[in-house]
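Posting for a labmate who doesn't have an account.
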Amino acid sequence: MCCICILLVQIATKSGYLTKQGARRKNWKTRWFMLRNNELKYYKKRGDPKPIRTIDLSHVEDIAPDETKGKNNCFRLVLPDRTYFIYTTTSNEMDDWMEMIRWRKRMCPSSATAASSLT
């Protein structure tokens, strides 16, 4: 990866409150999400030192709008072991998050590939 690409990847981050569906209870919880490098992390609240979960974007198989949950501005993030359902407050915000995740996935290969390309 060239130096300009590495700089763009480091600069292009996104964060904000999104609402996701729980894995077991299927209730909806608002969480603080941070998209940085090749990871999407979410926290119980902004400023928490440790994320609840870190999603490696190299494992994302699909990201698309979702209308099956009865929520406006909802999208799904499909991984091999789980599908995340997340919604935003506006359709523009949903589009921004989906596009940024897609872009990050394209620009940031898996951590191992990125590390080997820098040596």
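Reply:
Got it, the structure tokens are right above this. The CA atoms of residues 6 and 107 lie 9 Å apart.
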